[in-house]
What does this fold into?
Amino acid sequence: MPEPSGRTVVVPQPSPRDFGVIAFTGRNLVFADIDPAWIHGLLPPDDVSAPLSPPFLHALGNKTGREIGTVDLLALAPPLPGPPPIPLTEVTPTGHPRVARALRHRDDVRVWTCPEGVVLTGRGVAGRWEVAVEVDEAHRGHGVGRTLARAARHLVPGPLWAQIAPGNAASVRAFLAADFIPVGAEVLLTNP
It folds into this structure.
């Protein structure tokens, strides 16, 4: 993890799609093709939380014409060897809402299903491996989310990132139980 510095670093967008803010402990990263002086001019020098504040995100969205997404918990886990702990069948990406969202934010999206739910992986921000899971409504509350999150760690060759809505306590608990470590927060700004 980056060392806390109290600074906000501005870097170019890794791709035209990837645009946003990542907040780590005591350090922020804005990935946007915008003049860094403009960005730093909006941020109070003594407020390390300002890059995720509504006024800053609103100004960033207005300047770029992008829509502000959800501020998500950002969690990370290493890959695991061997087969997943639950039988999964890989399927062609479909019109499932979770798949449609993944296709807007990720490349190389792969989808696995089982009677209990869906696991998706893909290459997201800066090409990192990202995961999303969805538990079938009939199977919620029985640890399936944790099992699917752990299964995803068996499906990728490198570190796996998860963006989790903080208000989705069940999802936060599932990813923590699958040994994902909270590393920060992230908000993506997307083209309408």
Q: What stands out?
A: Residues 18 and 125 are 6 Å apart (CA to CA). The chain has a mean pLDDT of 93.
